[in-house]
Amino acid sequence: MTALKLTRLGMLMEPEPGNPDEVEGVLNPAVVRAKNGSLYLFPRLVGRGNYSRIGLARVLFDDRGDPTGVERLGVALSPEADYELSETGGGCEDPRISFVEPLQSYVMTYSALSRHGPRVAIAVSNDLFNWRRLGLARFHPYGDISFDGIDEKDASISGADPRPAWATFRRTGASATVSGDAPGGESASFETSATGHSSGEHLDLVLPAPARARVVLVRRVH
After folding, report:
1. What do you get for the CA distance between the two ends of the chain, in Å?
2. DSSP letter, residue 140
3. CA 111 from chain center: how many Å?
4. Residue pair 138/132 in contact by the 8 Å Cβ criterion
5. Residues pairing with 26 in the sheet
6. Which of 17, 23, 187, 199 has the least C-beta neighbours within 10 A?
7. pLDDT digit string, tens, across residues 16-36
């Protein structure tokens, strides 16, 4: 196996002076390349009182191809839904974005902070600029293990892969790991809901055999 070598290039983005949306920091960005080759950051923008939004910025490069900074393009998601709001504010935090080939869409998982604590929420987009909320992720239980109603964040989804499908859930708080193959010809999916009620939408991440995609979901509990 070839060793992976990384080179630090320096600071790419920091709080913009005078911007109230960034007064407490910019951090934990998702990074995704658009279909036209442009590279975008989706940083967590932290305003006063730990009120977080998910920003959108295009990465700028020099003639050598090294990143030099960003062009801020606005806010992708601000707390609006009930599951993103609390008595003291709320938050849309820590996004992860993948292009999921079977869906032909970008899928964002992010932490939604409400009065109930942090939960994994999902949004989808066709162009990276306009996002449609699907609600909170609700995972089917594995035997007697329930994956709903517990503080959690930092979920991620991988895109398509011609190999057999896998789904992995890691819950450090419960010391449980679940993994396995999706049965042949079936689809692995998880439901979404808003404020505890099913939205009726399903995000199917695995194609029927033989063209099944590979799915990996990793969730960390604090």
Report:
1. 33
2. P
3. 8
4. no
5. 45
6. 17
7. 999 999 999 999 999 999 999
